[in-house]
């Protein structure tokens, strides 16, 4: 026995080391650690060709109004940036021949020369878009106006990023990637306590959810819920217009927005892996339904959450009633509706204690919620909204967005080596002569 005890002691350090290693692997990560991981993943999401060329277009516009040197590197590219800017701004989206193949090849070569500068440069060091458009399209008075500076500049460019994030999200050419980039350039904490701040927090939370950054989204929405709880009297006219709640008073609108924040925080938590997250998700869904019922919200969102909670509580008859309502939604495809029929049959024959139907899971739930949000976004006439708010140069802003979409798409096409080969060697040689 003494010999055996000595052997055990001799191996004790190794056993302790193995135990510590296993403990580290099995240790459940904290909310803070998971949030930091999402922040790292967000940076990786922003590393794409589409975002890089979009940012290139934004810097072309904003740097055109820059009067100071800023840096030696910027000064070395200033002439090239201004030359490309003049070509792109004059580009007529209705006349695709106005920028030639050679133009695109040369622009792409210029872009590659300054790519590192573009990627590491924060566009917000340059004048705002409003200042740039004033300089391009303004009258003699507005062209002489001082540029925004300090806190005023931070506020204006915050609003610009927020508006662009909302405008481009449904764009086939720019879409979610560019919307996410614009969203990350916003900073709600720099905005005064107002309706714009709460809508921005909600929209950021939705976009982070869409990209699978659930801990970032949860953090954003949690701060918004706290803000709404502390600002119950804030006026919400934009929210009523945005969600088409024209029949609601301000108190009910507040409840509606509060409910949707709980809804998406519930989805964030449902998509997480820890047991505590699912428990928190159910609490959020119950809070959502409580608020929704107070204002009479009765649509695919409420039916889908009712179904989920009824299934969890094994209230089969109520679950079937909500599933039957859900089948009437115009947001769902015929395939979705066929599978809801399968779900109804499953629930009818479901034995007590059996797991939830594999179809009616968290992914299907989040799909309905996302479709609901996109259906709302698609009905917003942003150009009309901006004109009603007297945003200067609204027509020019939307024309420039259209130009940027086409410019980025064509630049990618003409940058392809295979495309250049197909256009013929003589054209390539001609381009080389122009560059040399």
UniProtKB/TrEMBL annotation:
Superkingdom as given in the UniProt entry: Bacteria
Signal peptide range in chain numbering: 1-26
Keywords from the named record: Signal
Name of the protein: Short-chain dehydrogenase
Source organism: Tenacibaculum lutimaris
Lineage of source species: Bacteria, Pseudomonadati, Bacteroidota, Flavobacteriia, Flavobacteriales
